[in-house]
Specification:
Structural class: mainly alpha
Number of helices: 14
Strand content: under 5%
Distance between the termini: 80 Å
Shape: globular
Length: 240
């Protein structure tokens, strides 16, 4: 009987030991777990908790471009644009084909009119992923800046075919209508984008800008009220 018990214990120990061994996480798996937790915290707006998870991930895999990219998103959430841009560039240095960082860099460079740099990064993304909706939307924005309106429309259509809710594509579409002097159609484009992205502020802010000059107090106030509903405790929103 004792021999049988010993055998059973040995078998049980072997099974448990096997489970413990096979469930031991690799550094890559640990990093992925920390990144996943950090992303979940970011989605809930818990920035400090996200920071802790990203820091733990960075200790495990310090040259992973996704970590630099996530740090950049943290910087953006806190309004630190300089650090955000630097971290996006760091992600690109770690992987010149890391699309999320390339698209973010392109957005920043579009703002400061570095059109050649914007185009270079967009084309890199599209060469790897011809159906990337955000790349097409940013290409549309670039054409709009260059007053190439027909080409901008073509890219908007490509972006919305792949992602019907793409925010940038609606902003470009509104810009095309404004360039034609059609404020009504521009407002309709923005409203459609808002309806498809109810938790996003960027199109609401665009709507405010659209009706500031000439000033339409009713529409500006209505847009501000929607912004405040999205961020009721953020004093920065009330100070816009």
């Amino acid at each position: 009987m004792k021999t049988k018990v010993k055998v059973l214990l040995l078998i049980t120990a072997a099974i448990v030991g096997g489970v413990m061994f096979t469930s031991r996480e690799t550094p890559q798996e640990k990093e992925a777990r920390h990144l996943r937790r950090g992303n979940e915290y970011m989605a809930k707006g818990e920035v400090e908790k996200a920071r802790v998870e990203y820091r733990n991930a960075a200790k495990l895999m310090p040259v992973d471009p996704e970590i630099s990219y996530r740090w950049a998103l943290l910087d953006e959430a806190e309004g630190n644009i300089r650090n955000a841009y630097a971290n996006y560039l760091r992600a690109e240095q770690q992987d010149p084909h890391y699309a999320p960082a390339l698209l973010k860099i392109a957005q920043y460079q579009l703002v400061i009119s570095q059109y050649a740099e914007v185009e270079k990064r967009i084309e890199t993304v599209l060469s790897d992923d011809p159906d990337n909706a955000m790349a097409h939307a940013l290409k549309a924005a670039l054409h709009l800046r260059r007053k190439e309106h027909d080409r901008a429309r073509e890219e908007v259509q490509k972006a919305q075919a792949k992602d019907p809710a793409n925010i940038t594509s609606f902003a470009v579409l509104a810009g095309l209508h404004l360039a034609e002097g059609n404020l009504e159609k521009a407002e309709a484009a923005v409203d459609e984008g808002i309806a498809k992205n109810p938790g996003d502020m960027s199109l609401l802010l665009l709507k405010v800008k659209m009706f500031e000059k000439p000033l339409n107090v009713e529409k500006v106030n209505a847009a501000y009220q929607e912004i405040i509903k999205l961020q009721p405790g953020d004093r920065r929103v009330r100070a816009i």
